[in-house]
Amino acid sequence: MAYSHSPFENTQTTEQGGSIAMAVLNAQYKHPSSAYSQGLKDLIDSMLKVNSKDRPDIHQVIQATDRVLQSLM
């Protein structure tokens, strides 16, 4: 949502004829331009971990989002 498109659509995998589904399953994606803060990129990385046990729960996402927003002020 932050990027206005799927981060998986721009991966080298899909550019070389691979599938978006495989990119998602393997967490192969690229962040767009550097216009986004490192905090936001880190949050997105944490939510897109392959192993669901490694992903933050909703409370951790909210806390991380608050930290990212505070760092921008």
Q: Would you write up a description of this structure?
A:
Helix content is 47%, strand content 0%. The chain has 73 residues and is mostly helical. It has two domains: 1-32, no CATH class; 37-73, no CATH class. Its EC number is 2.7.11.1. Keywords: ATP-binding, Kinase, Nucleotide-binding, Serine/threonine-protein kinase, Transferase.
Please give a quick description of this structure:
It comes from Paxillus involutus ATCC 200175. Keywords: ATP-binding, Kinase, Nucleotide-binding, Serine/threonine-protein kinase, Transferase. With 73 residues, the protein is mainly alpha-helical.
What's the helix and strand layout?
Blueprint: H1 12-15, H2 20-25, H3 38-47, H4 58-71
Helix pairs in contact: 3-4
Catalytic activity: L-seryl-[protein] + ATP = O-phospho-L-seryl-[protein] + ADP + H(+); L-threonyl-[protein] + ATP = O-phospho-L-threonyl-[protein] + ADP + H(+)
GO molecular function, one term: protein serine/threonine kinase activity
Protein name: non-specific serine/threonine protein kinase
